[in-house]
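Our preliminary data section would be incomplete without showing what the modeling component actually yields. Below, a chain of 124 amino acids is followed by its predicted structure, encoded as tokens that our downstream tools consume directly.
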Amino acid sequence: MVLADEAGCNLSNSTQKFEDICAEARGDWLLFMQAGSMLQPGWPQVVLAHASKGGGAASFKLAVSPDMPWWKRVFGPVTHKSPLAKGFLISKRHAQANANGKPNVENMMRGLAIKPLSVGITSA
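Predicted structure:
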């Protein structure tokens, strides 16, 4: 938690209203991920390039963890049930404009055009 706070992150949970999360955000862009997820190297440059172009909502591509046994990496499908498995990146302004009455991030994601970014994310 201390590391996240020092990096400028706000930690939230699924019971917190999406509008409240947006209001408490300190930055101009919001990045939502499942607990335990990790972005692959190079993600800051990809996110900065996307943000500098004024890109809309985005997500990352699912990647397989290198810690996973080789047979699962080769034969196991990369699927996850949560919409946040791929992460969710959105500008604070765009999020606030679309947050009306949305109880959580997953509901916010529905109906938005979400651009896939070129960097991977592994989920726990």
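The longest helix spans residues 43-52. The beta strands are 29-32, 38-39, 58-62, 88-91, 115-122. Preliminary results of this kind motivate Aim 1 of the renewal.
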